[in-house]
Amino acid sequence: MSSHETALTRAEESNRALQNQLDPRWYPQFHIAAPAGWINDPNGLCHFDRRYHVFFQHHPASPQWGPMHWGHVTSEDLVTWRREPIALAPSEAYDNDGIWSGSAVVRDGRLEVFYTGNRWRNGVDGDGGLIQSQCRATSADGIHFTKRGVVVPAVEGLDNVRDPKVWWDGERWLMIFGVESADHRGQVWLYASEDLEAWTSQGVLYEDPDPGVYMLECPDLFPLGDRWVLIYGPMTHDRPRGLTRRNGHNVTHLIGDFDGRVFTAQTEPAPLDWGHHYYAPQTMVSPDGRRLMIGWLGEFAKPLASQTADAWSGQLGVPRELSLDENGHLRSRPVAELVGLREHSEDAGAFALGLNEDRVLIDDAGPVEIELEVDLAAGDAERVELRVHDTGAMATTVAYDDLTQTLALDLGSRGLQGRGVRYAPFAGEALALRVFVDQGSVEVFAADGAVSLSSLSFPSAGPRAVALGTVGGAASIRRCVVHRLRSGWEPRS
Ligand code: FRU
Fold first, then answer.
1. Do residues 5 and 465 touch, judged by C-beta distance below 8 A?
2. How far is the CA of 240 from the centre of ligand 1 (A)?
3. Cα(216)–Cα(208) distance, rounded to whole angstroms?
């Protein structure tokens, strides 16, 4: 057995042991998660051999972040997922302390993945600094990988150099990754290759204009319509500003132009999602040409309830389709395939809610998608609230607030999650929401993907109701449908 095969076997064994401790109370039914243990960023998104492949940062032995592996799931349709064996484990001198984030491309019927091989300078932890090189591995079947070594060596004097995203630009392969420059600026570097093996530097593609951003993670750059979109996670020690950058890790996007060397922004950096937990998204192109995106719902800085007691931590958000609207703004909608999760639907029709009125839609909801349309112009409510995961003791509230013209996702201030509120600016005559409620998360899409808020949500014990309510006035509900969703996990064969 090779050292990599031995490491994979050990990883699977440690994960099986942890699976026995899994508590299902918040475990996702239709979001991607590891069988047990920790996950963060989605990696290597691609379509290969008639299936979608999603890899992810994974610590199989523990619900805490640790030596990173690449976990793996696949799907024919983006809604029914099959668990695959762990794809990559630390095993070589250049990746011994972690297989960090990266991407995948398909060439000549082979799957080629690129990742950051991480090493601790002191051999123990990050305190002494990091040595990060960009590495390659290939697979003929999409499941078993052979490591091919370092393609972009570590840079002398730099610690943070990571998260390669590779794509074919029509003439050559391009790779970008995030860098903390020598003067501590967050940069994206560009490399090019003819054969995916020999890579040459093309210089700095982009630098975050904010000098407080010392590093940026997981960059992705892609064409959309007649523009280019750049996505990344800016790292900063600065305090949050207003509604933005409220989380330990925040993801930003810009729209602009790319001339093959340099990205020129035409917009200011803006959030990609306004919830508590959405980070490190990666995109890919589907066989029918759609730009798809999957992000991570998780948290590095503060302990999560599932992590403390339930032997798992982190999940991936539902797949989204990206587009630019008529004003050139980015939209991220749940992919059309997600309607395939609907099992049966309860249509509450159109109705009015009076002053401070409450209406329970479902007493005990499992995983559901809620479609809600409110005619804001026809009502005078100061707040219209949709409560989910409502156990009486606790609830997660999606609210339109007319005073501040915001859409809120409120995890409350008490109990297991108590992580307060996140707001997205929102104005309009009508409110149209799609809200995906899983066992341990809530994802909100408003105005056809113009606004999204994604957060983990861990309800207290007891039935989980869904309810609608008004504060300070009346509301006119145009449409309200609750779809019960089936599990997205393929039964184990
Ligand atoms: C982002 C990140 C990446 C890194 C990975 C390590 O969440 O910090 O930059 O490759 O996670 O797990």
1. no
2. 21
3. 8
